[in-house]
Amino acid sequence: MRRIAPLFLFLTACPPAAVQRIGGLPEVPPVPGSPARDFACQLADQVGPRLAGSPGDAKAVAWAVEKMKELGLSNVRAEPVKVLRWERGEAAAEITAPFHRKLLVAALGSSESTPAGGLEAEVVRVSSLDELRALPDERVKGRIVFFDKVMERTISGEGYGKTVDVRSRGALEAEKKGAVASLIRSVGTSEARFPHTGNMRKAGIPAAALAIPDAEVLRRAVQSNQGPVRLRFSTTSRFAGEAESANVIGEVPGTAKPDELVVLGAHLDSWDLGDGALDDAAGVGVVLELASRAVERPLPRTVRVVLWANEENGLKGAAAYAAQHVAEAPKTVAALEVDSGAGRALAVQYNGGPQAEAAMQPLAAPLAKLSLGLAADSEAGGADSGELDGVPLLHISQDNSRYFDVHHTADDTCDKIVEEELAHVVGVGWLLTQHLAQPGVDLGRRPLPKKP
Ligand SMILES: [Zn+2]
User: pTM of the full predicted structure?
Assistant: First the structure.
């Protein structure tokens, strides 16, 4: 068994970034020598981008298997998952009238390519799906729809959920009205020129995201009343058939109830523009540190780490895990998924059956000591754990005020992870893990239908 290296090793390997204080929040209590950031940086720096089915994805699987073995986990394996591989190719956009101006864009995941050489059409600007739906078809037919919907910065990150519909459904809705392409203002909060990618429902027309400053150029062009705004757009993105990926799994066997499982999960894949440091190497780092703590201090129930494949553009890993392990679902006490960036913990949410509240109550006081709330929430959980049939889900809300500056962009690199903030999430995760791994702690079953 390999012990966690002493603090000074991490300090030399991964100097902590300056802690940026956030107004109104209490101090983050230090967790000395937390290796979570170091694990995350290794994945982000040494593997880098790892879109499902890409060479980087295969490298990430190998890295995770090796890392789990090194940390002393048992039954380490890569369970094969078939994924649909999407390749970005090139993308370019340019205003051609009433003036010439190149714009920075990134194709959206699942976008088809434009015809060779690209397409050129007049732009119609809308600020929401509803505004598009209200337009007569002849105002849209043959044009490029520009969704100019602004995401609000909040600590909870809820602005993302309110804005992302134009990314996921925009192309589909624009196609229904006869548009030839869909461009969106990036669903993010950074004013830097980093287009924000992400998945969309497959449509018959190509789609891309404009960097926010570039979306604002296009808005001003439309609002300048200098006549119709025309745009040339090309992308060579495409689906490249099926490929092999894997969920990487490792365990710390329980000392008293080895058949009862606590699942700690994060996703191993990432978007291709950046290093996927916050999304989701940070979550991988957290669950690996939790597992290595369990290796050092074994718990009565088994702790199973699941690093899901293909969260970003298919959820094939989560579906495969849920199907292959359905027989274990009744014995899975709860699942904690960590996929909310690297900001400090703010609160804990959970769900389950009627007994869940009483089962979680012993955590209320220790969490309150850390100024963290604890609340039942039927929506708690994440995209991957949401596939688990009836398993109670836990969620650690994190400070998302800066997350959407870098999420899904080329700027998602490890320097953005503040060691103390990620260690704070580990501290909370360890409280949860220790509690859930005690025999008799029973949250019942989650009754609600699976999240879409
Ligand atoms: Zn993620």
Answer: 0.92
